[in-house]
UniProtKB/TrEMBL annotation:
The keyword Oxidoreductase applies. Belongs to the short-chain dehydrogenases/reductases (SDR) family. InterPro entries: NAD(P)-bd_dom_sf, SDR_fam, SDR_oxidoreductase. NCBIfam families: PRK06482.1. Keywords: Oxidoreductase. CDD domains: 17beta-HSD-like_SDR_c (cd05374). This is SDR family oxidoreductase. The keyword Lipid biosynthesis does not apply.
Length: 279
């Protein structure tokens, strides 16, 4: 059965390839991006099956306007994919207020408002699927990415909560958690002005990895193939009963498995003290 998808952040990387693959198999895509022109080639090839909307997800008024327009023009949207986002790097005290506000507005508030804008339509059509692009960074944490992790951990909590709120309306949710993948994440990284005192700390070590552009070894080794990652996302989003979370790639599997195992170990270790707080 052909589907209609609404996808944010489609000009490059994962969002662009996802759009390409869905159109190639015969689906319809409402694709949003911040600037004209990036999807002109696909529009020429697929015509009315590609609906394009200009959208800055940090503009809540525009979010609602674009979602309203997409449903009005297309009639029904089956899957909403919250993909727009980027990384912010720097020790917490290195970050500017503007950088912090923009990161939260894009990665967290923008996704929340898109879901809120789509929910009345999904309820009215008695069904819909919300696909939230998170990352392994939604369950793990690395030095220098405190605000990025804050947004990813937060959006995962939001999605896990609303999945319970809207299940009765035939709406379900899926959180995608890719590890390091062949995207433009590093190229689009917003870098804070470094403080010399962090040069010889874990933040400095990670900063040197990203400024060098060498991801051939270490924690941030790029192991995941972009095309295979997108194929796995589509397969999961097509499933009759998708999982709430899907880790993508061996790096994501390993890192998430390690942190969850350690978290459970610590919880069990503290069990007696934990239970002593009961009445």
């Amino acid at each position: 059965m052909k589907k209609t998808w609404f996808i944010t952040g489609t000009s490059t990387g994962l969002g662009r390839l996802l759009t390409e693959k869905l159109l190639a198999r015969g689906d319809t895509v409402a694709a949003t991006l911040r600037k004209h022109g990036s999807l002109d080639d696909l529009k020429a090839q697929y015509g009315d099956r590609l609906w394009i909307g200009l959208l800055d997800v940090t503009d809540t008024k525009q979010v609602h306007e674009v979602v309203n327009a997409a449903f009005a023009d297309l009639g029904r949207i089956d899957v909403l994919v919250n993909n727009a986002g980027y990384g912010l790097f720097g020790a917490a005290e290195e970050l500017s207020d503007t950088q912090i506000e923009r990161q939260i507005a894009t990665n967290l508030t923008g996704s929340i408002q898109l879901v809120r804008a789509a929910l009345p339509y999904f309820r009215a059509q008695q069904g819909g699927r919300i696909v939230q692009i998170s990352s392994e960074g939604g369950q793990t944490a690395y030095p220098g990415f405190s605000l990025y992790h804050a947004t990813k951990w937060s959006i995962e909590g939001f999605i896990e909560s609303i999945a319970q709120e809207v299940a009765a309306f035939g709406i379900d949710c899926l959180i995608m958690e890719p590890g390091p993948t062949e995207t433009n994440f590093a190229v689009g990284l917003d870098l804070a002005q470094p403080l010399a005192c962090y040069e010889d700390t874990s933040v400095g070590e990670v900063r040197r990895v990203f400024t060098s552009g060498d991801f051939s070894s270490g924690t941030f080794t790029i192991k995941s193939d972009l095309a295979r990652t997108v194929d796995a996302m589509i397969a999961a989003a097509d499933a009759e009963q998708p999982p709430l979370r899907l880790a993508l790639g061996s790096s994501a599997y390993t890192s998430i498995s390690q942190v969850l195992t350690e978290r459970l170990r610590v919880l069990e270790q503290q069990k007696s003290l934990t239970l002593s707080a009961d009445r």
